[in-house]
Design goal:
four-stranded mixed beta sheet; 2,3-Dihydroxybiphenyl 1,2-Dioxygenase, domain 1; globular; 127 residues; alpha/beta
Length: 127
């Protein structure tokens, strides 16, 4: 079987907020925009869909919406991971320290978008 991941869909409270985040921070291109319900972003060879979560799933008594998910989106980058991390920090993006593992040829750095979706930056170390 030949299978190709086409799109990851995130169910979100505020589509516009995350559209702005991913287009401003990561410079992803908007392919479809049916605000306020749906936005489709181009992310390299794949796509990220932002789909407004149904009203029945929202807890209106909470302050800011934060997703509770075990999913992480990984973005392989070409630019310097240290410089990108610093730029994200300056833009008030929640971003952790850069890490790697023994005998692993990548530097990694995890962060969160404004609604708590976890992403990882992945940069190949030049030998």
């Amino acid at each position: 079987m030949n299978i190709n991941l086409d799109t990851i869909i995130l169910f979100v409270q505020n589509v516009e907020q995350l559209k702005v985040f991913y287009t401003d921070i990561f410079k992803l291109e908007v392919l479809e925009d049916y605000a306020p319900e749906w936005v489709l972003l181009k992310a390299g060879n794949g796509k990220i869909g932002l789909h407004k979560i149904g009203e029945q799933y929202l807890d209106k008594n909470k302050a800011a919406f934060k997703v509770d998910s075990n999913c992480k989106m990984v973005f392989e980058i070409e630019e310097d991971i240290h410089q990108l991390r610093e730029r994200l920090l300056q833009q008030n993006v929640l971003i952790r320290e850069i890490k790697t593992f023994d005998n692993y040829e990548y530097l990694l750095c995890d962060g969160e978008d404004p609604q708590g979706n976890v992403f990882q930056l992945k940069k190949k170390v030049m030998n």
